[in-house]
Amino acid sequence: MLVAHEAPTHQGDDGAPLLQGVLSKIDPASLSTWHDLLGAEPHVAGTPGDLREIEHIAEAFSAMGLKVEVDRFYPYLAQPVSAVVEIVQAPSDAPLPIEAEAEQGAGFGGASDGATNPGRRRRGVLALDLREKNLAEDPTTAHPGLTFGWNAYSGSGDATGEVVYANYGLPLDFARLRELGVDCRGKIVLIRYGGAFRAQKAANAEAAGAIAVLLYTDPADSGVNKGPVYPDGGWANATCIQRGTVNPLPYPGDPLTPHVPATKEAIRLDAATVGLPTIPVQPLGYGAAREIIGRMRGAEVPDSAWQGGLPMPYRLTGGSDLKVRVKVEQRRGVCETANVIARLEGSGEAHALDTVIIGCHHDAWGFGAADPLAGTIVLMEVAKAMSEAATAGHRPVHDILFCAWGAEEYGIIGSTEWVEARVPWLQEHAIAYINLDMAAMGTQLGSSASPSVADIVRHAAASVPGVDPSMTALAEVEGDTTGSFRPSPAGGGSDHVGFVCYAGIPSITLGTHGAPGTSYHSNYDTVAWYRQVVGDDYAGAALVARMCAAIACRCADGSEAAAVARPDATLGVAFSRLAAIRARSEADPRGLVGVQSDWDSASSALDSAASAWLATLGETPEIANRARTAELLWLSVAGLPNREWYRNLFTASDRGDGYGVVLLPGLTEAVEDRDEERVAESLAQLRRIGDRARDLAPPTAP
Is the entire prediction scored with pTM above 0.85? Predict the structure, then answer.
């Protein structure tokens, strides 16, 4: 029985003129210029700055000689109107304010000048700061287009109540509060960022009965406890606020048009019934959170893991003497934004029919120098380099699309709408999708990829000058005892989700990390922050650009196309994952979920199919086309139970953490839920996939 399935190393022609021509065009100085152009102003989706960003990108692609389409769409978005967080009642032994007690140099003090009377007492009321401090060292932080901190799709409302601290706001955290007798009903729940997608945190709190949620950045996670804060260093200072969507819906894309594109004429769901938050959700910096935590007088947290980085005891409740008011007003409505699609035509007959797609979103919560522009500048540079190489006579066989997606920050909207409108075309013509979101954040190279295209990433790493494959952040596949390594499987969190989870297109994400700090989703995510903290030499961005170009050249070269889709790799990882799920189930003291024969038959079918494909791997178009079909066998029309949009039975976004990935999601979730009927059905599905994949494998040569 095979545990892992390794094909012979594909040699290819790493000195191909196409690749060498492209690599020679990638220029760190050009990457810096792209950053100046695209990071010049805030560009939140649906705003005038967003429309100007779209124009800049379209004009730049056109100047490269590419065929450009501005794909306008009309999603349901939210925009901030106002927000207030006030301490309206405090224990008599708690001074107002207390932040003056903190050492200023440690990153805890300093109210900003952008909120409504922040830090001032008004008849016993302390208004907390909801905006980053303007910095003389970075004048762009005073740009009039920047906003106070906000969470998109928060409910609008005005709530006053006692405070409960819920750690990271995970289901286990709320379960622990219940064990300790802490009731969240009617309370303001304070939650720190980290550990899961913020939308899940807010949804968990609302389900527990909270009347408002405060999300804050704790210094232990990304603030002063990690190192010097901005502007002296790169970490979050006390006023730094993480914005972001709190859309908790079980599908990405426009909240009101699942499965269909968000056109002007689209028939939309009722916004009041889809499940967006109904209570106020407001983000804070840890300077503001300190004002609340320092006045809490309830029992101290019983678990050390709940103690954050503020220099004071963390408590489960504030007590009856502490009352906080949270008022949020937002407008929700249909807005216009756009994807920008640029096509580099291939040299093959009818461009050899197939297409490689490279993408990164263009919208941001402010200037977006890191998120997304650390990837968008790579997209632009690779497009420029490949168009220049094509002009010089080095043109790929297949077409390449360069895509700048809109409204990703609200819930992966632009790319999802584009995919939903083109599923049949994608399944017939898309070779692979490469995602570059926030891609250049250091010099330590990492990747995730669908197993069927993981070899392309490894071979590309070997062909790019200056890349040591041992540097790449490769994760050992669970259950693989051969010692082989692959990029970790692609899952959730960015624009590849629609391609891999909905349309079944093999996908790759690329990026570097290692920068000493974060400005994530804050007003400090400026080009000045990036050059100070990540580096002004753009070495990491150039590295990612070369890797992206190497992968794209391999995928778009007709002689390489057959090596792209490796269903044996997907089947082999599925086999290993199935074994791991089974082992955990057998170790569960509550007993194995499911009938043993069902597990045996599913395992045998996957292993047999992987072996059949491994024995017949080749480079003919016939095998490549069959491989694509075998990949699509993982798609289910019905989708996953309770989240039908996710149709790929091999991989999906983690339901408890939208950033994570879960393999064999139908089976994994059925086992977690101890649902015998769903376990049996999931195993039967895996058996059928294995049987059909084996039947599709080309016959072994005599």
Answer: yes
